[in-house]
Design brief:
This protein is an alpha/beta fold. Helix 4 links the parallel strand 4 and strand 5. Helix 1 packs across helix 2 and helix 5 crosses helix 9. Bound molecules: S-adenosylmethionine. The site of S-adenosylmethionine has 23 residues, from helix 1 and helix 2.
């Protein structure tokens, strides 16, 4: 699913850049030492960390070679930010290697999130923060809700594919995972951003790129079905015209916790 970095940027990566500063502020990371970006994708969080923490060194890991190469090619901080392939469920770093670890819009995609969280906790120093954000796919993420509500309205087969079923996307789920993973002082809160699209075309065309479950669903439809879905979505997000700007709110749930000083 995570192979075409340019298409990902067009579909969702551009919104990651708006969420990243919220997660960094919420995590309250130190401006020093080594910071880990878990599931660094095309680099939004790693670059935000480097911008806001000019004395810190950032390491981004992601299983997608294509995303890692893309992030390397766009890296404005080659002295302080490095990317490499890796899986959060099995990190190659020594215990207590990082002063803090953050993860943006990733944990819902990891097959065994508790295993990943324990690994992230292991490589983070005692007393260091571990944080993450996940889109509220079930409710507060209007861009995807308009899409899936339209798809389900037209075809009942879309119901089981609807991203509202994503794990860890509801209030209390991330903080539950963080407590289960042995983090202390766990706090969860929502962050809301505004996605501003130039027009309905700017909004809709990103769904035609085969990105994420929504893009994959569009690819499975006939031409007529895509046309009907487009009309239904448009009636929900931009009923009066195609060329007017659209603003849609999008919520993430963010969690932070502290690695215990004594395990
Ligand atoms: C929605 S993207 C988010 C990327 C980036 N953090 C951002 O905010 O734009 C999800 C990312 O999770 C990564 N991912 C999936 N499984 C993973 C795993 N087991 N460990 C680490 N990252 C993983 C994917 O390769 C992809 O880059």
């Amino acid at each position: 699913m995570f192979a075409d970095a340019n298409a990902y940027e067009r579909f969702m990566g551009r919104w990651s850049r708006l969420v990243a500063p919220r997660l960094v502020d919420f995590t309250d990371v130190p401006d020093l030492g080594r910071l880990l970006d878990v599931g660094s994708g095309t680099g939004a969080l790693a670059f935000t960390l480097a911008e806001r923490k000019p004395r810190a060194h950032v390491r981004g890991i992601d299983p997608s070679k294509e995303y890692v190469e893309y992030a390397k090619s766009k890296n404005p901080f080659p002295d302080r930010v490095r990317f490499e392939t890796g899986d959060a469920q099995q990190l190659r770093f020594a215990d207590a290697s990082f002063h803090a670890s953050l993860s943006l819009l990733v944990f819902n995609f990891i097959p065994d999130p508790i295993k990943a969280l324990r690994e992230v906790r292991r490589v983070t120093k005692p007393g260091g923060r571990v944080s993450a954000s996940v889109w509220d796919y079930a409710d507060g993420m209007k861009m995807l809700r308009a899409f899936w509500d339209s798809a389900v309205h037209l075809h009942s087969k879309a119901e089981k594919l609807d991203e509202r079923h994503m794990p860890l996307c509801r209030a209390g789920e991330l903080s539950g995972l963080w407590r289960q993973g042995g983090l202390e002082n766990v706090q969860e809160q929502p962050h809301v951003i505004t996605m501003r699209f130039e027009s309905f075309v700017d909004y809709w065309d990103a769904f035609l790129l085969g990105q994420g479950p929504a893009g994959v669903y569009v690819k499975s439809l006939s031409r007529d079905q895509v046309h009907a879905l487009r009309g239904e979505v448009k009636s929900r997000v931009s009923p009066s015209a195609e060329n007017l700007p659209i603003a849609l709110s999008a919520r993430v749930w963010s969690v932070r916790g502290t690695v215990p000083r004594r395990l």
